[in-house]
Amino acid sequence: MSEKKSEGQLRYDELSYAKKNYFETASEEERTAMFDYAEGYKAFLDAAKTEREACAKAVELAEAAGFTRFSFGDKLAAGDKRYFVNRGKGVVAFRVGTEYLEKDGMRIIVSHIDAPRLDVKQNPLYEKEGMCFLKTHYYGGIKKYQWTAIPLALHGVVVLKDGSKVEIKVGENAGEPVFYIDDLLPHLGAEQMSKAGAKIIEGEQLNIVVGGMPYADEAVKNKVKLTVLNYLNKEYGMSEEDFLSAELCAVPAYPARDVGFDRALIGAYGHDDRVCAYPALTAVLGSESRHTVLAMLVDKEEIGSEGNTGMQSRVYVDLMEEIAQALGADFRKVRYASKCLSSDVTAAYDPNFDGVFEKMNSAMISCGTCMSKFTGARGKSGSNDANAEFVGEVRAMFEAEGVVWQTAELGKVDAGGGGTVAKYVANLNIDTVDLGVPVISMHSPWELVSKADLYSNYKAFLAFIK
Q: By C-alpha distance, which of 79, 243, 68, 114 is closest to 168?
């Protein structure tokens, strides 16, 4: 028999705040929905290991949901379901609502679809002591030592000398070869292991093994290199010069997998930030709204959102302005009335490395999608710090729809930090706050998330665009 709570304890329970584990509070029906939704997400991850592939998969899903391609100059009307593609590396899926844009604005969810990886250099191929390698330049923030001694796949495109383009994707299917970056055996690694972690493997050591069989011609000096070149020529029509106009990258060759006896977690490459991009996309594709809603899946976040496919590109502002003009609205007034969720992942509290976390203000695994009022580093440098009024507005949306969610910041104040695209949207005078899934081992070749947090993120987007 439980003890009767005191008046003070009842009052404390009423007034205090504690995060809730979504698995504990979810109904059996909701748990089933979490696990079902995760299957679609895992399929998306396996098909979308680069931003180009994520863009193509998003278009495929949009067209299956009845969305049609939009071009500048097209007419628009309430109820239209359209998508816009930016150079094959970014996609915006949007629905035109019934509310007047100047009064209601747009509901925007922005996620990125690029992820840390190893990019093949423009002049990469060389042979040394019976082995053939591709030189790489890492993309985004990585721990370089994590990328050695694991199976890698090569993905990308090559524009040949004649102007034609070929796609390369090797290492994902059973029976295909994979690729590899070698590491030093521990028996001879004493000096290596005495180095700081950032120096255990240097950037110029991230060279991918791609061959080891000599070409059968004694007159040739680089026999193994010729074997690789011969294969590339027969399979793709390439010569070595074609690497100059190629975009190839190495990514982990692992598929997304359930983790744990209870299958509560998902291990995969590229959760950051496709664990937010997929729910953003599926929420907009599958849910009608009186608002005009946009899911913007963009490129280059991992290197500062630069270039004509990153969030700093003028094209995304032009697209929003084009939509406003097509509906007869003043874009300045539309911007002022619009609201945005900048959906990027955050660091989940990791009990094995708790020294860098401030537990009261950390994202806890399976406690729902996480709102970060601010990001940045140390003194909030480089952050969009959302105003309390907008945080309160989003909070009310989530409460009304029963969304399980939490707030957090990324680690202890002086431990480091990170940024998102939020500030670029907020600079347009659009109310913006960060919302995303907590991730363990972020930026590693195989990250970890909770199915509960994935599904919570999806439900949060549905509440936001409702």
A: 243
pLDDT band, very low/low/confident/very high, at 427 (cuts 50, 70, 90) = very high
Decide if pLDDT at 415 tops 90: no
The reported pLDDT for the residue numbered 378 is 85
Domain with CATH 2.30.250.10 in the chain: 118-252
What's this model's pTM, rounded to 2 decimal places? 0.95
Q: What is the dihedral of CA 94, 100, 106, 107, to 10 degrees?
A: -80
Q: Give me the CATH code for the 118-252 domain, please.
A: 2.30.250.10
Residues forming CATH 3.40.630.10 domain(s) in the chain? 19-115+269-465
In whole angstroms, what separates CA 305 from the centre of its chain? Answer: 13
User: What integer pLDDT is reported at residue 411 of this predicted model?
Assistant: 87
Residue 150: pLDDT band by 50, 70, 90 thresholds? very high
What average pLDDT does the segment 152-180 reach?
97
pLDDT attached to residue 1: 54
Signed CA dihedral, 316, 319, 325, 328: sign only: negative
CATH number of 19-115+269-465, picked from 3.40.50.970, 3.40.630.10, 3.30.360.10, 3.40.50.300: 3.40.630.10
- Radius of gyration over alpha carbons of the chain, in Å? 24
Rounded CA gap, 192 and 202, in Å?
A: 11
Residue 2 has pLDDT above 70, yes or no: no
